Each structure stands twice: as structure tokens, then as C-alpha cells.
């Protein structure tokens, strides 16, 4: 059974289940969810803990299966944690063993099993072993905190330690500044919030408090750059490009990301003009999630001629990031990428 992360505290207050699976790529939230389950287990008398890490196809599953069934009459309750960093239990034998473990765990009264997995794709969620984990226990997907959710998340964390920003626009600007400083680095965001709790007493935090205390620890994902560009957010696009450059991300990867969006926009526009339905077009191009929404908003208003100009510009920038000089363009690769992104943002803004 699936459980949302924000439902976990209420669930644990009502009692423990014998099997939990956490899956996702956000270290802070994974750690906090696991800590909450362990704390509830300790309070319920689970005093022993064994940890196993699956590495490679030759992992000894018998040790894990035996650990959950070797309790004697006088043994303490125990927690068994199974970490699978690759997200793959390892061939047919591992898949069968993990499914067996799920079934065994569901029947154990003196053992709590906690399985750790990275973010799973759709195919992994359809496997027999994950179906068994779902059927016999609780699985909790750990979703990343997106940029638009970050100010609210920060405000909740501040409130939990007795602090808050000013009301009205001043407070919203403080939260937006805070979010810009920590975007893409939730663990560091948590540490910066804790730092504010150490530096200042409970109560209202001024914009000056936040500006002076919160360090710039943002980490940018090149694929999130697409969302900033397609949203028409020039300020965020510029900040992300500067951050990616400072982090040493390859120019060719950033160019590929921008160029692929232009190519997909042009393909989708051509398919729409040919009478194909938009949902089918986006599915064929493998455009999912938030980007799917952005494409759907933009495509009806983007003119083919504008897309053709952007595609030509992307072709020219491709040469620049590979060392070629072109008249009318900056010689430096990152400057050319800024200009290409600026042209894309302008096209998005004009299509609104």
C-alpha cells in the first residue's frame, strides 16, 4: 500500500506495520522518514538492528532471509534494514528472494523490515518483487521538493523551530530569496534553517537576518533549466546558467538540453499542424510531468517561423561550444548559451 510522506507521522502514531519500503533520491527526506520509523520501532520495543546492503548479482540473500526467521522465544524484537542502492535486487534469484522476504516480513510479529531503494522508474514498479513489497507492506515514494514548493517548505521548517518571516510581501520576498539560495540542495537548506535557529531567538526573522545568515548553497540540475526557460523566467534561467557554469557542468550538455527542447517544440508543432492530437504527440516525444504542461501551454501559440529561427540559433551555438567562431555571436561558449536561452525565453514570453 502506498503512503504519502506527509501521512507518515499520523500513520506511525496509530501503530507499526511489519514492512516498510522507502524509495526516492532526496537524501534529507529519506533520512527523516527512516529515522521516524526507527524511532517508532524503538518505542515499540524493537531494540536490535541489522543492516544489509545489496551489492552485485552475487549477494547472499540467505543471510537476510535467515535474519528474519531466526528469533528464539527469548530474543529481542529487531529491525532489519535492507539497502539496495542500484534499485535492482540482482537477477531472477534476487528478485525472487526479495519477493519472499516481503511475504515473510508480513507474517513476522517480532521483526520490522525497512527496505531502502532509490527513485524507481515505471518498469521497476511493475516487477513482481515491487508488487510483493506493495502488497505486503507500506511503500512511501519520496518526491523532490520543487522550486515552487520550496518557500512553503522553508516556512514550515522555520515554524517548527518557533520562527517565522514577516507577513505580507516582505516575508514572501524573504522566503523567495532563501529558496533561491538553497535550490536543489535540500540537505543544505535544512542546515541553513537550523543555523537561523541557533543565531536568532524564536519569533520573527527580518529580511536582514536571512540575507546575512543564509549562504548560497544552491545546486542546479541541468534538466531543471528546461523548466525555467519554458516558464519564461529569465531571472531564474540566468541564475541557473551561472550556477551550472560555476559547478563545472559541460557546455555541450547544457546546449544539448536547450537544443533538444527546441527540436521537440518544432516536432510537436509540425505534428499539431498535421492534425495529430496534442496528448498523443507529447507521449510520442516522451514529454512528461511539468514539461508536458509547459509544452501544452506554449505549442498553440508558438509560430513555426520562430521555432525555425531558434533551431538555427541552436545549430550555431553548437559550433561555438565546440570551439568555432561565428560572426554575430559571442566567442565564449557560456555567453552564447546565455544568448540562446534568452532568445528562447523571449519566444516563450511572446507566446503568452
Automatic annotation (TrEMBL):
<keyword id="KW-0548">Nucleotidyltransferase</keyword>
<dbReference type="Pfam" id="PF06144">
    <property type="entry name" value="DNA_pol3_delta"/>
</dbReference>
<feature type="domain" description="DNA polymerase III delta N-terminal">
    <location>
        <begin position="20"/>
        <end position="140"/>
    </location>
</feature>
<dbReference type="GO" id="GO:0006261">
    <property type="term" value="P:DNA-templated DNA replication"/>
</dbReference>
<dbReference type="GO" id="GO:0003887">
    <property type="term" value="F:DNA-directed DNA polymerase activity"/>
</dbReference>
<keyword id="KW-0808">Transferase</keyword>
<comment type="similarity">
    <text>Belongs to the DNA polymerase HolA subunit family.</text>
</comment>
<keyword id="KW-0239">DNA-directed DNA polymerase</keyword>
<protein>
    <recommendedName>
        <fullName>DNA polymerase III subunit delta</fullName>
        <ecNumber>2.7.7.7</ecNumber>
    </recommendedName>
</protein>
<keyword id="KW-0235">DNA replication</keyword>
<dbReference type="InterPro" id="IPR005790">
    <property type="entry name" value="DNA_polIII_delta"/>
</dbReference>
<dbReference type="GO" id="GO:0009360">
    <property type="term" value="C:DNA polymerase III complex"/>
</dbReference>
<dbReference type="InterPro" id="IPR008921">
    <property type="entry name" value="DNA_pol3_clamp-load_cplx_C"/>
</dbReference>
<dbReference type="InterPro" id="IPR027417">
    <property type="entry name" value="P-loop_NTPase"/>
</dbReference>
<dbReference type="InterPro" id="IPR010372">
    <property type="entry name" value="DNA_pol3_delta_N"/>
</dbReference>
<dbReference type="GO" id="GO:0003677">
    <property type="term" value="F:DNA binding"/>
</dbReference>
Amino acid at each position: 500500500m502506498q503512503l504519502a510522506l506527509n501521512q507518515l507521522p499520523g500513520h506511525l502514531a496509530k501503530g507499526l506495520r511489519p514492512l516498510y519500503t522507502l524509495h526516492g533520491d532526496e537524501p534529507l527526506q529519506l533520512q527523516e522518514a527512516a529515522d521516524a520509523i526507527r524511532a517508532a520501532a524503538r518505542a515499540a520495543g524493537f531494540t536490535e538492528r541489522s543492516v544489509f546492503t545489496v551489492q552485485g548479482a552475487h549477494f547472499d540473500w540467505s543471510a537476510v532471509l535467515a535474519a528474519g526467521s531466526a528469533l528464539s522465544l527469548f530474543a529481542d524484537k529487531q529491525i532489519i534494514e535492507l539497502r539496495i542502492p542500484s534499485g535492482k535486487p540482482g537477477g531472477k534469484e534476487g528478485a525472487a528472494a526479495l519477493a519472499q522476504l516481503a511475504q515473510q516480513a508480513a507474517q513476522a510479529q517480532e521483526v520490522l523490515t525497512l527496505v531502502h531503494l532509490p527513485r524507481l522508474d515505471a518498469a521497476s514498479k511493475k516487477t513482481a518483487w515491487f508488487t510483493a513489497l506493495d502488497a505486503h507492506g507500506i511503500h512511501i515514494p519520496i518526491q523532490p521538493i520543487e522550486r515552487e514548493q520550496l518557500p512553503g517548505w522553508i516556512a514550515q521548517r522555520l515554524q517548527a523551530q518557533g520562527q517565522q518571516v514577516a507577513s505580507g510581501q516582505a516575508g514572501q520576498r524573504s522566503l523567495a530569496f532563501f529558496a533561491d539560495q538553497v535550490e536543489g540542495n535540500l540537505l543544505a537548506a535544512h542546515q541553513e534553517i537550523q543555523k537561523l535557529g541557533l543565531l536568532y531567538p524564536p519569533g520573527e526573522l527580518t529580511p536582514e537576518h536571512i540575507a546575512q545568515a543564509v549562504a548560497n548553497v544552491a545546486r542546479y540540475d541541468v534538466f531543471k533549466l528546461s523548466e525555467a526557460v519554458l516558464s519564461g523566467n529569465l531571472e531564474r534561467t540566468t541564475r541557473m546558467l551561472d550556477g551550472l557554469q560555476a559547478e563545472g557542468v559541460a557546455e555541450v550538455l547544457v546546449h544539448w538540453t536547450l537544443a533538444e527542447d527546441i527540436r521537440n517544440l518544432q516536432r510537436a508543432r509540425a505534428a499539431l499542424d498535421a492534425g495529430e492530437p496534442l496528448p498523443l504527440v507529447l507521449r510520442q516525444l516522451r514529454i512528461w510531468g511539468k514539461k508536458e504542461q509547459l509544452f501544452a501551454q506554449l505549442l498553440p501559440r508558438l509560430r513555426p517561423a520562430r521555432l525555425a529561427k531558434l533551431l538555427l540559433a541552436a545549430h550555431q551555438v553548437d559550433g561555438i561550444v565546440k570551439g568555432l567562431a561565428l560572426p554575430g555571436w559571442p566567442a565564449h561558449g557560456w555567453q552564447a548559451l546565455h544568448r540562446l536561452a534568452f532568445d528562447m525565453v523571449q519566444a516563450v514570453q511572446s507566446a503568452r
